[in-house]
Amino acid sequence: MREWTHAEHAAAVATEIARMADVLKGRDMSVAVRTCPGWDLARLVTHTGGVHRWVAAMVRDLAERRYDRDGMDMGLPTDPGGYAAWLAEGAAFLPEALLSQDPEASMWSWAGEKRVRFWSRRMLHETLVHRVDAELALGVPVVIDERVAADGVEEFLDVLPYVKWNPDVAEIRGGGETISLQADTGAGWVITLDPDRFHHRRSLQPGTVTVRAATSADLLQVVWGRRSPDDYAIEGDGGLFGWWRGLTQI
Length: 250
Description:
There is one protein chain. By secondary structure, this protein is an alpha+beta fold. The chain is 44% helix and 12% strand. The protein has two domains: 138 residues, Up-down Bundle (Four Helix Bundle (Hemerythrin (Met), subunit A)), CATH 1.20.120; 92 residues, SCP2 sterol-binding domain (Nonspecific Lipid-transfer Protein, Chain A), CATH 3.30.1050. The radius of gyration is 18 Å and the shape is globular. It starts with 5 loop residues before the first helix and ends with a helix.
């Protein structure tokens, strides 16, 4: 796997926002989103577009604190028929905001990486996962670039320790057991459960339990809870993976 630059992440953000808006154009916004229980497409769009505007504002200001997203005027159209176009606007203003700042500049984030570059990567995968949600809701094919997907699996593992809104994450500890995520396309990660924490590394080695899938795109959907691991080969202690997956719903 090759490392991404901030500029590459920002460019991919624009591509993913445009793809998501395209999927939603002309659609019934009342369609239920089964991968986000209780949400419909309208809620999915307003959440995703709202996050784009929230992050763009903080990046422009190099915010030292979290802005109140609920208190921001997002300029949401009154007619849901305009939601897809409203979402599409982010393909211009969000990358522009991200590229307007030094990627190494300090700013607030909820994870360990407190620099502008955190947000270019986070916004790529936030948008990608919600584009997948929309496609699954509408029954249209899900196509994910393999390089983007591999970065997305690793980003999930990178941010997982900082997910304070799900207290279950703090329970992901063990006695050295390993969970291996392997794609036939050549990407792989091993998560090690230590008594006080967990950590991960790139590796093609099997683990106490190994999940094998055809692509990183498949693994991305598994770790984000968008596909069942039962669809793929599980070798070893399947109960361990079920336990881990149950604690990692973010």
